[in-house]
Amino acid sequence: MEEIQSQSDAYRSSSSSASSPASRVPSSHFFYLRKPGSLRQPISFEDSPEWEDTDVEARGDEGGGDTINVATPASPSLSKLNSGSLASPYGSYILEGAVLPNKIVGASVVWRDLTVTIKGKRKYSDNVIKSSTGYALPGTMTVIMGPAKSGKSTLLRAIAGRLHPSTRTYGEVFVNGAKSHLSYGSYGFVERKTNLIGSLTVREFLYYSALLQLPGFLFQKKNVVEEAIQAMSLGDYANTLIGGHCYSKGLSGGERRRVSIARELVMRPQILFIDEPLYCLDSVSALLMMVTLKKLASSGCTLIFTIYQSSTEVFGLFDRICLLSNGNTLFFGETLACLQHFSNAGFPCPIMQSPSDHFLRAINTDFDRIIAMCKNWQDDNGDFSSVNMDTAVAICTLEATYKSSADAAAVENMVMKLTEKEGPSLKYKGKASAATRIAVLTWRSLLVMSREWKYYWIRLVLCMLLTLCIGTIFSGLGHSLSSVGTRVTAIFVFVSFYSLLSIAGLPGLIKEIKMYECEESNQHSSALVFLLGQFLSSMPFLFLISISSSLVFYFLVGLRDEFNFLMYFVLNIFMSLLASEALMLLVATLWQDIFWSFLTTLCIQVVMMLSAGYLRIRNDLPGPVWIYPMSYISFHTYSIQGLLENEYLGSTFSIGEVRTISGFQALQNIYDISSDTNSKWSNLLVLFLMAVVYRFLVFILLCRKSSLLISCRCRRVGTEFTS
């Protein structure tokens, strides 16, 4: 402790010049937003600032960018804030022309002695969160701040009950004073990574999301969507494609982030959790985002989110801050009280520095390496570092100061008040029926397919070009016995390369799976609903490819000119595409990465082509592996066999003037088929069953992932976690 005290005293003396009145810029350059018509200016803990009343004006640029014009008003004193005499603040940044959302009955959230551990190789070790205590009130924004890998997202997920099963959580979480489960619709959770459908407009995307989430009538959902659009200040972009198209630009990063938040707002949640709302946003977009969230909080919603770093203006919008470092809570309380806390611990914030920058500089251990590399460097003010002590010592000092401070005692008292009496429980909001969700997903996927030219229409064009190439190469074969081998080659090449070209649809499938996982994590969809919707929506497109390519190939090569044989050819190719699509869906679900999915699917398709019985008759293949099981699990085998049976069973070929042989005999030494005339329908049935089996395996994988999420939510029931 003597070492800590000595270094702390050294820092106080070194920072006095930086915070002296003579070295400050005018106070109007820095401000903190607190309530309508007023902002808090920076506080020097050595001198009392002069408060001046001014106005605030903030508006979004009418163009595509995120811009804000700001002026600086005044704020009440810090003593009023710490005494709790202020009402729930509402940020005075208001977008010009914005409509405030309807009032929401928020909910208080309390977490007490929350500890999260990660499962190690042998036992649970590595405390990610260590005895964190805090609360969030309706109509306020509570931010969890800290350097990278400090436990911000883990704490947020622990409060929301969305941790991975490999973690263990100890402590208590209360909602309106009760240890209860967060019911469907009462809260929303926005992930850090945004998953949106670029080929839909903002209004379309939110409308389909509302159809997936909400029961009731269509006009009610349209009203909810319009409210969400207005709440997130997206009115100017409501009819803009999220991803843009070849002639126009899509939404910016900040606008996409607001769309992902608006998706959760269609349920009108009482509590909203957001992981890194300012992720990958520039300073102007970040300020516009926080102004919008402040407006949302003013409607009564309880906002809890994580943040890594913020500007001075954004920092002033926060109501409460939970500061973490290596899982330790260094402070919880009002934002300006955090500045006082750092000053009391010996680390006052220089007037020229952003508070969040100052906090992270003091508690981020990565700066030690920077100081070690630049220890001989000096800036104009002398030292390269504004904190003249090791960050580990600073963390210990801040933690010890907080535990013995009045702020920690005030937090404990507030937690006791919020938990001593149970308030109204959060009501369950009904879901849309499974049939409705299947219909919505089917129609949405059909709309996406009609607009995604890269993944669907180019694939159709490539299939037609491939068909023309194969058809022209094998055209004019005739129907003699000598043409049988060449015709078998043409059918093998068509089926094999056609199924191989279907790999072009992998990126679209991966996007669908990621979208499903995003919606399923918030209980907007399910594995069965997703698979049925994806299956129904893919059938028209696959049938379009099948019939267009089959007709071209069939007549160019000159196969049997009877309608029933032609229809069987189309159905066979259609079933082959269904099986190939289901196989790709299975691989995409396993990897969820374009490169590895491409590589795996390509290898599987090539192995299936080798064992299909053309390069070597199936009965002559080596028994282990190639016959059993490869030739039997290759859909190429059943597709080619069915097409050849359709073409040659019932046909005859003349040998000389007297002798004739059947088509079955003509194929004996070329390809292994059955002499049963109904065998081709059995092959068609096998292709359909293979498509069903592959999708059933996908269903098992998705259900397994869903069960892990459900187990996380079930562990949240009672909201008291023990080993």
Automatic annotation (TrEMBL):
Residues 109-351 form the ABC transporter domain. One of its GO terms (molecular function) is ABC-type transporter activity. SUPFAM superfamilies: P-loop containing nucleoside triphosphate hydrolases. It is found in: Membrane. Its main location: membrane. Keywords: ATP-binding, Membrane, Nucleotide-binding, Transmembrane, Transmembrane helix, Transport. Residues 1-26, 40-76 are annotated as: Disordered. Belongs to the ABC transporter superfamily. ABCG family. Eye pigment precursor importer (TC 3.A.1.204) subfamily. This is ABC transporter domain-containing protein. It comes from Arachis hypogaea (Peanut).
